[in-house]
Task: structure prediction
Amino acid sequence: MEQVLSISRKPSGVTHPKLREIIHADFHDLTPIQDQLTGYNACFFCLGVSSVGMKQPEYQRLTYDLTLHFARTLLPRNPELTFCYVSGAGTDSTAHGRSMWARVKGRTENDLLQLGFKSAYMFRPGFMKATPGLHHTLSYYKYFGWLYPALRQFLPRYVSTLAELGQAMLNVVRKGYPKPVLEVPDIVALARQ
Result:
């Protein structure tokens, strides 16, 4: 039987026969739930924080350390897993640029790609139009959503929808993709396949 496992800090409010939800407060300590993380073929790692107002050590702990800890916990339990990581447009693959968040994200991407998953893909969305009815989104999105049509027309390399990101992630698990790092145009194209 196919099943989706959602691991979150708070309930999603969604119920479905194929959805199993684990509410877990501390993602830095997966010991209490690690035995439940076996038998999956894909991980969509969408957890993240804004770097605004954060110093590098805290941002690194919540971005790099947490993500790699989660990935390293999954890998031995799911050797055929495809790992999809939501990063961000402007991520610095050299991990040596001027922007702190871009360096940390770049290092995170690089190390995920080297872990040994069956396949790993780094998704770098830019501005995303939220899905109508979405409950867990940043509050300021509602003030910028009206810009989406103009941005999509004049800056298509930087704009997608959240639904396109989700569809692209599903499609990359089913079909693969020739590049491990997907920028906005890759995400939009893959969503349409």
Remarks:
- The first helix runs from residue 56 to 74.
- The CA atoms of residues 6 and 59 lie 24 Å apart.
